[in-house]
Amino acid sequence: MIHRSRLAPVAAAALALMLAGCSRPEPAATPATATDPTDAPDFVNVVWRVSRSSSVAPGMLYTFLEDSTLVLASSTGAPAFGTWSYRGGALTMVEESRAYPVDLVSLTRDSLQIVIRGPGMPVELTLVPAHQPLAR
For the chain, which domains are there? Predict the structure, then answer.
C-alpha cells in the first residue's frame, strides 16, 4: 500500500502531465488564504473522482492542492482552476470568482461526500480516490 505522503507527489505529477499545455488563469480578486499543510484536512493532495452526483458527471476529477488551488478536470473539457479554504470546520470552494459554501458530509480514506451550496439546488457529490474503480 502506498502511504499518502508518497502518493501526493505522484498524484501532483500525474495531474501536471494530464494538464500539460493548459494555462492557469489569474487568481480571483479575493483568493482563499492558503491552508497550513500541517493542519490540512485529509482530502488535500488527493486526486478525487466523482463516483455519484446529483448533477456532476461521474469521472470528473477534483483535487484540493495544499496551496489552496482547486483543480477540476474531465475528459470532456478543458481543466478549470479555482481556490478553496477550510477554516474552523467550514469548507468553501471558489470557482469563477464565486464562493460556494460546502457541507462536508463524510470523509474516510475511501470516500469524500460533500454538498456544494450555490444558487439553485445543492449539488451532492460522492468522490472516491481516482485510483478506485467507478461503482456500477
Answer: 4-25+33-129 (2.40.128.280)
Cell of 12: 501532483
pLDDT attached to residue 56: 93
Distance CA 57, CA 2 (A): 28
Chain position carrying cell 460533500: 114
Q: What is the pTM of this model?
A: 0.70
